[in-house]
Amino acid sequence: MKKALLVTRVSGFIPQHEMNNVKILQKIGYEVHYATDLNNVVYGKDNSRLDNTGIITHQIDFVQSPFSAKVKKSYMQLKQLMLSEKFDLVHCHMPMSGVVTRLAAEKVRKESKRNVPVLYTAHGFHFFKDAPLKNWIYYPVERYLARYTDRLILINDEDYKRGQKFPIRGKVEYVPGIGIKLPEDNQIHNIDTDVKISYIYNITGKKVTSDTKVLVSIGELSKRKNHILLIEMMAELMDLNIICIIGGSGSEETSLLKKIQELHLEEKVFLAGYINDVPSLLAISDCFVLPSFQEGLPVVVMEAMAAGLPVIAGRIRGVTDLIEHTKGGYLVQDFEPENFAVKVRRMFTEKDKKSAIPRDIRREQMGRWNMERVKKFSRDVVEKRMWDIYNSVQKN
């Protein structure tokens, strides 16, 4: 049986985002292996989601910093794994594991004289328009490693245009994200008010009224995700009957709780922890807000679109592939809490100046626009692209 190796720096990424690709490879006839740091689970709570998937796991002691002396250890571990298992295809993800994997694979290619195809999916380059100068240190690295890459898979328009200029060994491919499952009936559902109130109480401990509006944001609690902006934004909206639920876990949880307390927003902003049932949280929400500084092509925004929610987000790469300003929500030019607050007020309290459409109807129109738009990023579309890509490297 042919063998395929998937590689990520931290564990949980494959069961969280790449199981469709695993199933495609298995259907094509590959035995799928997964090399990662099994002791560093970032996506999910543990490695139990790998059980009964047919995936064979391998421990690699990856580090996050490219300047760590331990990088060589992960390189040697991967190289030895590739030599012993004789993989027929390698597909890596995430920046650091993408670097180490391609270097190791090239060394094995030369030593074994086996031309094993190497694929790398960049889920958003660190370098992008208006990115901090320090982020561009990765540009020459990615450009150089393109010569060791048979398929460079990019998921947003800006990255794809830039990647086409790289001196790649194979081809640059555009794939619209990881693909999301769309609702079968393509309808916006009106959740019963009592159900909504009960759900909110269960996850926040707060009793709300039938006219309370819910802002939601879901993502890792990290500095890059910038959830502190939401807390500062809510301080500008104390006069409105609106609460904000932030779903996710991460290193910034303590500092976010401290900020909530400092601004006396305990009755306005709630950290809900890791969300197992994202669709249910989206279903009781009225608007999705994404304050991230940087994204590749945010899955959670696509999930919000599929749920029929309007979106307020920064005007950043990846988001602009998904949301059109005033049609699917509002895009904010900067990351000032006051400016995000202005968009929330516009979403919930002001009439459309041109048509005088009530806000509740306008929000529904935005949600329906998003539901139609997100079809371009559906699981069926992405699976077709990945079938074609995996089959094409088999033939070479």
Secondary-structure topology with pairs:
Blueprint: E1 2-11, H1 13-17, H2 19-28, E2 30-41, E3 56-59, H3 71-85, E4 89-93, H4 95-112, E5 118-122, H5 138-145, E6 151-154, H6 157-163, E7 171-174, H7 193-204, E8 213-218, H8 228-234, E9 242-247, H9 253-262, E10 269-273, H10 278-283, E11 287-290, H11 299-306, E12 311-314, H12 319-322, E13 329-332, H13 337-348, H14 359-373, H15 379-395
Parallel strand pairs: 1-2, 1-4, 2-3, 4-5, 5-6, 6-7, 8-9, 8-11, 9-10, 11-12, 12-13
Helix pairs in contact: 2-15, 3-4, 8-13, 11-14
* Percent of residues in β-strands: 15-25%
Return the CATH topology of the largest domain.
Answer: Rossmann fold
Helix content: 25-40%
Q: Could you name the CATH homologous superfamily of the largest domain?
A: Glycogen Phosphorylase B
What is the molecular shape? elongated
Class by alpha and beta content: alpha/beta
How many separate helices? 15
Q: Any idea what the radius of gyration is?
A: 22 Å
Give the averaged pLDDT, no decimals: 94
Overall number of strands: 13
Give the count of structural domains. Answer: 2
Assembly state: single chain
In whole angstroms, the N-to-C terminal distance is: 18 Å
Order of helices and strands: EHHEEHEHEHEHEHEHEHEHEHEHEHHH
CATH architecture of the largest domain: 3-Layer(aba) Sandwich
